[in-house]
């Protein structure tokens, strides 16, 4: 039998191994300490309670209960598996929509951020379609995140021809900067752009909206995003529990901070299911 205290104790150990030292790591330890004497067998409900406590510090912490799991707890850190190129091609790099509307609006919907090397042909094709449009609506309402390099790829279409520093990712080994790439002169899009966000916009999906908003490049419409700004790794804490453990955090190059806990706050708050219609009509409440 695996008890809640076993799971939270192992999670605390992994946080000390993976997460940068500092106030946020200490705050997570404080939240987990509330479960140190909890000897109840771990269940989906109790995993959710631990998650809820951890979310006060990191919205990216996840405890996934797998009742039929049999794998041994991890002793070494593992990475996310590489994506299946055929699967990425089958979903067109998560570009689920790219079209021109009758009024000249280019509408692009990106539902995830697949590995940049696989997603680039589809992303570039979609944004090429937007060249010459009257305006652009970029729909990220179902974007659950993914590769930071794809964030930079998309941002590069909208932030100008010269390379732009987007962020630093801080982990125990130091800092890694993320930049857009230099583009051929005149190739970046300059048209008015609206970005749609909501509760389904998560992690690196939030990063894309946040970086564009911080540079006053877009109008953000919809509902606030969940506010998950950490990078995480998958770690098995018990046969029945797989965790997402924070290993790094993001610092935007303009704001000096990130969207953790607050989410990306829209310029125009609209129910998420009405955001597209509102953006197209230009009619917002309030």
UniProtKB/TrEMBL annotation:
GO terms for biological process: proteolysis. One of its GO terms (molecular function) is serine-type peptidase activity. Residues 57-271 form the Tail specific protease domain. This is S41 family peptidase. It comes from Dactylosporangium aurantiacum.
């Amino acid at each position: 039998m695996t008890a809640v205290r076993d799971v939270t104790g192992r999670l605390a150990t992994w946080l000390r191994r993976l997460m940068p030292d500092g106030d946020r790591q200490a705050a997570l330890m404080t939240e987990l300490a509330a479960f140190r004497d909890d000897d109840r067998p771990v269940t989906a409900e109790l995993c959710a309670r631990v998650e809820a406590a951890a979310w006060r510090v990191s919205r990216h912490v996840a405890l996934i209960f797998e009742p039929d799991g049999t794998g041994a707890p991890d002793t070494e850190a593992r990475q996310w598996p590489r994506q299946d190129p055929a699967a990425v091609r089958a979903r067109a790099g998560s570009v689920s929509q790219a079209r021109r509307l009758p009024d000249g609006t280019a509408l692009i919907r990106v539902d995830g951020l697949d590995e940049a090397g696989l997603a680039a042909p589809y992303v570039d094709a979609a944004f090429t379609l937007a060249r010459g449009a009257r305006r652009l609506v970029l729909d990220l309402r179902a974007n659950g995140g993914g590769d930071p390099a794809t964030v930079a790829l998309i941002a590069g279409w909208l932030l100008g021809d010269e390379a732009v520093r987007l962020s630093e990712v801080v982990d125990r080994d130091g800092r890694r900067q993320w930049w857009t790439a230099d583009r051929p002169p005149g190739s970046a899009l300059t048209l008015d752009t609206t970005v749609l966000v909501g509760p389904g916009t998560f992690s690196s999906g939030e990063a894309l909206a946040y970086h564009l908003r911080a540079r006053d490049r877009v109008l953000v419409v919809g509902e606030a995003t969940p506010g998950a700004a950490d990078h995480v790794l998958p770690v098995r804490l018990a046969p029945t529990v797989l965790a997402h453990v924070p290993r790094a955090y993001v610092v935007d190059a303009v704001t000096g901070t990130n969207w953790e806990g607050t989410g990306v706050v829209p310029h125009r708050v609209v129910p998420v299911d009405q955001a597209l219609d509102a953006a197209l009509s230009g009619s917002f409440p309030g």
